[in-house]
Design a protein that fits this description.
Structural class: alpha/beta
Shape: elongated
Oligomer: single chain
Strand order of the largest sheet: 2-1-3-4-5
Order of helices and strands: EHEHEHEHEHHEEEEEHEEEEEH
Largest sheet: 5 strands, parallel
Distance between the termini: 26 Å
CATH class of the largest domain: Alpha Beta
CATH superfamily of the largest domain: Response regulator
Length: 251
């Protein structure tokens, strides 16, 4: 499980890093000293869990937690703070844990294990709810093309030519055999409609299953997808690697 540590105090971050790295099955994917840097780290590393301080310069941890909770497939949030008066507000952000500094190793282990179990349960429930509540996810989409607005008007891109979709803030870019275009649709809408044809490999990307040629490991230890007819190599977040491997075994 990948962990992001957010705290404006470097010594506090270093202490948590040491504690997390001693727990089997967990590693620190990134650190951040404030809310803005944390959101960038979440987009880049797609962590499973965020260890979050509350009192920080600029936006505080409670405000950041609300922003995180609004993301698609958000990581679990565990507050690590020196103040106990924020507990009620913290759990109002759907946090799964509230630890008081100095954090004790046994308490950290317990809440990390709790977050891991909840994460698996929530993801399983979300998949079931998606199949039950979204008629479009039950059957293959009737669309054979994706429409994109360009300077020349509206262009139709054959779905068979699409290699992957990449979200960046409010926009989604479709990468296809003949180039790339911006779309007006959200990644979540595309995932639901084309369930079974595209698979999520990161919080910000979906790839076409039929065009996956291989999973490759970079010198930095990250996995990426090699797709047919493109030099682009979308990065797979660690939390999706095992699911993707199982999917490819079943094909």
């Amino acid at each position: 499980m990948d962990v992001l540590i957010v705290d404006d105090e470097a010594l506090a971050r270093q202490r948590l890093v040491r504690m997390v790295e001693k727990i089997e099955g967990f590693c620190v994917a990134a650190e951040a000293d404030g809310a803005d840097e944390a959101m960038v780290a979440i987009a880049a590393h797609d962590p499973d869990i965020v260890l979050l301080d509350i009192q920080m310069p600029g936006r505080d941890g409670l405000s950041l937690a609300r922003d995180i909770a609004a993301l698609e497939d958000p990581p679990a949030i565990i507050f690590c703070t020196a103040y106990d008066q924020y507990a009620l507000d913290a759990f109002g952000t759907n946090a799964v844990g509230y630890l008081l500094k100095p954090v004790k190793a046994e308490q950290l282990l317990q809440v990390l294990e709790k977050a891991t179990k909840l994460n698996k349960i929530q993801r399983s429930a979300a998949q079931q709810n998606s199949a039950q509540q979204n008629p479009v996810a039950k059957k293959e989409s009737q669309r054979t093309h994706i429409s994109a607005k360009t300077r020349r008007g509206v262009e139709l891109i054959p779905l068979d030519d699409v290699r992957y979709f990449l979200a960046d803030h409010k926009y989604v870019t479709v990468y296809h055999r003949n180039g790339e275009h911006l779309l007006d649709e959200t990644l979540k809408e595309l995932e639901e409609e084309f369930n079974g044809r595209f698979v999520r490999i990161h919080r910000n990307s979906l790839v076409a299953i039929k065009h996956i040629e291989a999973l490759e490991r970079t010198p930095q230890g990250q996995y990426q997808v090699r797709l047919a007819d493109t030099e682009m190599r979308p990065v797979i977040s660690r939390r999706h690697v095992s699911d993707l491997k199982e999917l490819l075994k079943a094909i």
